[in-house]
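hey can u check if this looks right to u? its 495 residues, i copy pasted from the old doc so theres a chance i mangled smth
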Amino acid sequence: MDELIQLSQGTLGEIPATVPVPRYDRKALRPGIVHIGLGNFHRAHQAWYTHRLMQMGLAQDWAIIGAGVRQGDSAMRDKLLAQDCLTTLIELDPAGKSAEVTGAMVDFLPVQQDNAALIARMAQPDIRIVSLTVTEGGYYMVPETGGLDTGHEDIRHDARHPASPRTAFGAMVAALRLRRAQGTGPFTCLSCDNLQGNGDILRRVVVGLARLSDPGLADWVEAQCSFPNSMVDCIVPSTGPREIALVRSFGIIDAAPVTHEKYRQWVIEDDFCAGRPDWGQAGAVFTCNVHPYETMKIRILNGGHQVICGAGELLGLDTIAATMAHDAIRAMFRKVACEEIAPHVPAVPGISALDYIDLIEARFANPDIHDTTRRVAFDGASRHAGFLLPSIRDGLAKGAPVQGLALVSALWARYCLGQRENGTRIEANDPLWPVLQTAAAAAHVHPAAWLEQVPIYHDVKDAPQFAEAFGRWYALLESRGVNAAIGDYVGQQAG
């Protein structure tokens, strides 16, 4: 390998010729988007689509400014600013790895407790889209109603101190207040998180928070801003020493490279109040009906991740690919997906639910994607409620099988006890970890104690068919272990 090149704007001309770099003049780019929660997924997905347009000579006034509202976001900011906000994307295709340097992002705002810099920048008229990836559990929703949790400490703070909010949503409200006062006009609020109806949820949160301090502003936001629903899809592992070493194999020193699979999908409701890039020219799909795409992806891919990650963690399998190489877990995934999830998923143009399962199985099994079971299992309280509960509810309502989904819940409960079958400890991996551990321990004596976690299971706890199956699986996991329970399920006849 020749001398390694430290990634920066000034060294783009020295990057090996096998690695494409921005062909556009990044100094001439003009911002149009602020993205809050800027991590690996955003850089491999939305930022990539924008970069592609820029490579075509388009979207030169839609550059991205990164932002964060958590103190931990400062570390990412430091890394990216040190390399002029450039990112090396590495595509992990079993047929061969490739890399490219992307440059659609041009700045990263200071991370401040009162979000003053973020509010000021979103209030500027050149910002026409504010997008977010703040995780499924980051929307301050009341699970039973889907409304804003007005009792949460952060929301109460933002309602009392609207000019110095703690949350991303409070900062958006503060910026919109300034824009209304200045006559700047609204911006589009674009969620890129894995939530069914993510735009509708974001609308309820932003409008609901505004209403707590300024009902007139809330009415203005509801009437003037747009909140398109969207479906996002690309498997993007976390970055660690392995990825840092991998980018060096391409001749580049990058403190924050991103690896990703050779697959992306972005389906967006075409509802933008202040204009948008033509992401369709880069492969995104604009539609008036995102929900069937959301349902297929969230229930099969995101739900499928939850089907396998608990078993993988309990058996000490570090990656999603390793779980798919485990014959019993792979068979469980196919059985649950085909018999208990797919029957409740409508087809979308070009692909049926069963064909989509084949696609997801192949993507999960990609050995080059070092996506850890721990990452996928994180925040299971939000992910089980959002990704699996709808399939459980549909199955119960239609008298369809839910045995496998009950097993998945039992595996998750067993995981939350915090110990793998080999005796090693599972470190805390959920914002609600102490609560989950207490419920999992109580399930030793009274299995229904796990299902009595109302924010997760709601009315499902009262369904005898599901409760009985859960109790049976939990007891079998305790007495005979993961492989025996999965083998018992896989051996059952369909129906």
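The chain has a mean pLDDT of 96.
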